[in-house]
Specification:
Elements: H1 2-33, H2 40-67, H3 72-91, H4 94-105
Length: 106
């Protein structure tokens, strides 16, 4: 079971890495050639795919590492906490500023 999940994460991570690389190349070409300016919806889709795709890729690679680790529960807890922190900061940008204000007051 553990080995099967690791292989699934591995395959999905490879596919997503290729998709993200293609999206990155298109965005870099657009930065110089401005061919997506006429289609702003497509540009927004590429930005969203890249933004959230990176998070999904990190999650897949992290889970693959957890499934192949010697003590998976320890790594799962550490990875889960770090991934949750990244997600909270992505979806709630004001959270970081609130946390920094709280730290400065203490």
């Amino acid at each position: 079971m553990k080995n099967g999940l690791r292989k699934i994460c591995d395959v999905l991570a490879k596919i997503l890495a290729i998709v993200l690389l293609i999206v990155l190349i298109v965005q870099l070409l657009d930065a110089n050639l401005h061919f997506l300016d006429k289609v702003p919806v497509l540009l927004n889709i590429f930005k969203g795919v890249f933004y959230y795709g990176v998070l999904i890729l990190i999650a897949l690679v992290g889970l693959e590492a957890v499934f192949s680790a010697r003590h998976p529960i320890v790594w799962l807890i550490i990875f889960g906490i770090l991934l949750a922190a990244a997600i909270i900061l992505m979806f709630f940008p004001g959270t970081f500023q609130n946390f920094m204000n709280f730290v400065k007051k203490s």
